[in-house]
Design goal:
This protein has about 70 residues and is mostly beta strands. It has strands spanning about 15-20, 25, 30. The relative contact order is 0.25.
Length: about 70
């Protein structure tokens, strides 16, 4: 989330706002695609949604016994 080499994407740019239809409204360029990028990209860590962690399978006591 705080890597130094973040790939620019208008979804989490300080200048952009994600709309309900999935497009981004940019303060500089207007309505654009969410995966677009430009030279005015400013990373905003609060707009980035991290991936959900993987869920672990359910275990019972037989999985941990040695027979």
């Amino acid at each position: 989330m705080f890597r130094k080499n973040i790939e620019p994407s208008c979804e989490y740019c300080k200048n952009g706002t994600v709309l309900t239809d999935g497009n981004v409204l940019c303060k500089r360029y207007g309505l654009i695609q969410p995966k677009a990028d430009c030279k005015k990209f400013l990373y905003c860590s609060l707009k980035r949604i991290p991936h959900r962690p993987a869920t672990l399978p359910e275990f019972d006591s037989s999985d941990f016994s040695i027979d």
